[in-house]
Amino acid sequence: MKKITLLAVLACFIVVPTSKAFAGAWAMPKGKLYSRISFNKYKARKFFDEDGNTRSSSPGDSRGRHFEYIEDRYTLYLEYGLLDNVTLLTSIDSKNAEWTYKRGGFPPVPDEKSAQANGIGDIQLGVKYQFFSSDIGVLSLQALLKTAEAYDHRHTGPLEIQLGDAQDDYELRLMYGRSLYPWIPGYCNFETGYRWRTQDPADEFKYLAEIGVDVSRLIYLRAKLDGSLDMGNGDDGTTLGGYDANGNEVELGKLELTAGLKISEQWGCELSCTNDLYGKNTTKGVTYSFALTFTGF
Question: Which residues contact 56 (CB under 8 A, 6 or more apart)?
Fold first, then answer.
């Protein structure tokens, strides 16, 4: 079923039209800055179990109650051209998350708030080296560090959500991008990579496919399939809530659709909707985002 879904998403890329952003395989020109600050609201009321089936209860609840997870996240993403073919990048999240069990019953019983957290989450630091460029496209290699140094790694009680996975991870990614001119006014970008996890969670194989098209001089559209596959080397999980779920072996595939507006040569804004299409051992939800972009210097 997962393969069928993936093929359907890739097929829709052919007809889903973004203007080429300074991201993906392309390096930023020397001295240039690309910045994107976004507000993201994620809501989930379903859960992918060990086999990828969708459940209405979470594995951590032995009573099988319905749940709701809501996360408000501000993200700052920056790319800076150190050299014409070397780009430095970083991403920082600030989160406000809440997990609520839905009691239900008749007469209705008030919902039980079971976990909440807010603060700075994982921070990503990276460098991208564009080592090939020609009429057939560009190739780049990106190295990334994800660090958890911005928050307390300890679980201090049952009413707290961890702001990240409380460990440092390392990632290496190969990236290919190509302009679609003169056939259509747009571009495509493909990425594959490997993330090494330093503690209990499994290593991950990363993949991304993206296409964007200019609809007019001011408006562009973008579609992006972003996913990860676990490599099966995470610590063993336990059977929770009546079905198997191993929080150390998580998979997720997401489809993001974006519409952007070029306000000026330097400023732009974007609206996005990201849907969790398939996965295992994680929540299934939808993210709505608004972002402001700046390119200059």
Answer: 45, 46, 47, 66
